[in-house]
Amino acid sequence: MSDTPVIGVLAFQGDVREHLIALASADALARPVRRPEELAEVDGLVLPGGESTTMSKLATLFGLLDPLRERVRGGMPVYGTCAGMILLADKILDPRAGQETIGGIDMIVRRNAFGRQNESFEAAVEVAGVEGGPVEGVFIRAPWVESVGARAEVVAEHDGHIVAVRQGNALATSFHPELTGDHRVHALFVDMVRAVG
User: Is 38 a catalytic residue?
Assistant: First the structure.
């Protein structure tokens, strides 16, 4: 891998364009991923917000769920925001019928924990590993992490709830840093991808 890693954004739904912009501003070559052959060409992957049940069903439909699990298990760096965090959880506390996860982080996640769409909010969040003060977290029907296993590291909390976790090459936030114009969390992820290369 060159100094410019190729990072995909799972492009079924959610704020794909905003993630592509944030990654590009953090000096990555960013591209949408919808098919297994596109997944095979990236050094890392972002799982955006959206509806986690729909995303897991579309990943299955497009033949992408098993390749995603294999790449994540194999150590491909992956970053999930909001619904992406749910997809990276080894366990969901209140799954919808037929909902599946990719897994990769030893955590239990509660869906929509911060409330419904009209209870969305923004808050300053200190994220371990991100320098320069707190990031602005945009929480939209956001999950939180109920608990983490021994291998997972809590990197941010808000109001006594875990809102960002890292385990090896996997990073997850319950908020959306791609919506703020502050791309430091994406820069952290790009550095994680470079470190693997």
Answer: no
